[in-house]
Design a protein that fits this description.
Helix content is about 30%, strand content about 20%. With about 475 residues, it is α/β, with parallel strands linked by helices. It has two domains: about 270 residues, Metallo-beta-lactamase, Chain A, CATH 3.60.15; about 190 residues, Rossmann fold. A hairpin with a 3-residue loop joins β7 and β8. α3 packs antiparallel against α7.
């Protein structure tokens, strides 16, 4: 008998973490992600609801921190098994984990200075860079469609999820008492309309399907109209005479943005603009994308070759990289004509917050959100229309123009999720995870109304037996 216990991303979007227990494979985690939306320094304080030392292996769907960010803590607390992932995921994982831990340690240092001034006891670090190094040493990367034995009687296979570079649909076959059962975990399914990634690979057989539901309640604007909207927002911002701030996820979204901006540049629609990639992590990730270009969609590669470019950075000649802090601070002196792409994507940390401090109170500033904003994150507050925020101990008025651009999402929309689920020929038991309650409820109702699929929506900590 096999069980799934849902330890994260159950009726919420971030913190993906599911524990599989079976005599065939022992105890295996599907993802070990961080719950985003709060203060960066507090992200690692959540305690595991299981013993890390008892976990035999981790299967990682992709490198985004809400799927991978708790791995260093898992390792620090005694996990020493194998972490299975794709080759590109391993390359991205090291960049993301090092950056996340660096930010955490920097914030902790500032907090301990504050505590010292007040005569309080300093806090000890929950994780350190040595934990990242050990995490990476445990990673075993494999190709898409390669079959790997796992545990006593398990077989693992990855398929391309089309979400970000290296993202995977997990197919885990378990054999117990001579009976074979297949669990498919979608991870995060990509949006087929995105230009860089291939569409999510279809899967045709599963006994149990765990499917993400981030946008289970709505579809995205189509690609063509999204590009038009993007150009219109930039035109409007140009007339205002200020700058554009784009909080962006370093992995996936930034690279899509660079491609779209490159297309606008070659159409002659970015005259008077300069683009600044103000994120050391996004710069490093873009280099990984260029290194693993063979995994990208062929149409995007043909587009680059059409203009005789071999990389995303070359495709946008007005792109400037600002990896150093001094270069980032110098951007504050630019009065107009700057498109600044900076992390973090949900504005919970990173350089975007410094840019907000200098520009959010200006009416000629445009803030353009191009990705999902989790509940309680600063990005979500701004999208929802908050008029004042607190940053670095100061109250900041929100007078900037707040825009959202949903069509660049790296997640499948509602119709695309349903279409992908319908590839299965044997009516698997469908479990909906990685979605807020309204998205889960809407997708569950549509699956039943349209295809008589009764989807199960688990609560945090709930156990499913199969």
């Amino acid at each position: 008998m096999a069980t799934i216990r849902f330890h994260g991303a159950a009726q919420q979007v971030t913190g993906s973490c599911h524990l599989i227990e079976s005599p065939a494979v022992g105890k295996i985690l599907l993802d070990c992600g961080i719950e985003q939306g709060g203060d960066d320094r507090e992200l690692y304080e959540k305690q595991f609801d299981f013993n890390p030392q008892a976990i035999d292996a981790v299967i990682l769907s992709h490198a985004h921190l809400d799927h991978s960010g708790m791995l260093p803590k898992l390792v620090r607390q005694g996990f020493h098994g194998i972490i299975y992932c794709t080759h590109a995921t391993k390359a991205l994982l090291e960049i993301l984990l090092k950056d996340a831990v660096s930010i955490y340690l920097h914030d902790l240092e500032r907090e301990n200075i504050r505590r010292a001034r007040q005569g309080d006891t300093p806090l000890c670090p929950i994780i350190e860079q040595t934990d990242v190094a050990k995490t990476m040493s445990l990673c075993q990367s494999i190709d898409y469609l390669e079959q790997v034995s796992i545990g006593k009687a398990g077989v693992l296979k990855f398929r391309d999820a089309g979400h970000i570079l290296g993202s995977a649909i997990v197919e885990l076959a378990l054999t117990e008492r001579g009976e074979r059962k297949v669990l498919v975990f979608s991870g995060d399914l990509g949006n087929p309309d995105t230009v860089l990634m291939k569409p999510p690979a279809p899967v045709y057989h599963a006994d149990v399907l765990m499917m993400e539901s981030t946008y289970g309640d709505r579809d995205h604007r189509n690609y063509t109209s999204t590009c038009h909207q993007f150009a219109e927002i930039l035109t409007k911002a140009k007339k205002q005479g200020g700058n554009v701030l784009i909080p962006s996820f370093a992995v996936g979204r930034t690279q899509e943005l660079l491609f779209h901006l490159g297309c606008l540049y070659h159409k002659g629609e970015l005259q008077g603009w300069q683009v600044f990639l103000d994120s050391p992590m996004a710069i490093a990730v873009t280099e990984v994308y260029d290194r693993w270009a063979e995994l990208l969609d062929k149409n995007a590669l043909h587009h680059l070759e059409k203009y005789n470019y071999s990389s995303l950075k070359e495709f946008l000649p007005i792109l400037h990289l600002t990896p150093e802090p001094e270069q980032s601070m110098a951007l504050n002196r630019i009065q107009s004509g700057a498109i600044i792409i900076a992390g973090s994507g949900m504005c919970t940390g990173g350089r975007i917050r410094q840019h907000f401090k200098h520009r959010l109170w200006r009416t000629d500033t445009t803030v353009l959100f191009v990705g999902f904003q989790a509940r309680n994150s600063l990005g979500r507050l701004l999208v929802d229309g908050v008029k004042r925020i607190k940053l670095f101990g100061e109250q900041i008025a929100v007078k900037a123009q707040i825009e959202t651009l949903g069509g660049f999402s790296a997640h499948a929309g509602k119709t695309q999720l349903i279409e992908w689920q319908q590839h299965f020929k044997n009516s698997p038991k469908t479990i909906l995870v990685h979605g807020e309650s309204n998205a889960l409820e809407s997708l569950a109702h549509s699956l039943y109304d349209q295809h008589q699929v009764k989807a199960f929506v688990p609560h945090q900590g709930e156990i499913f037996t199969f």
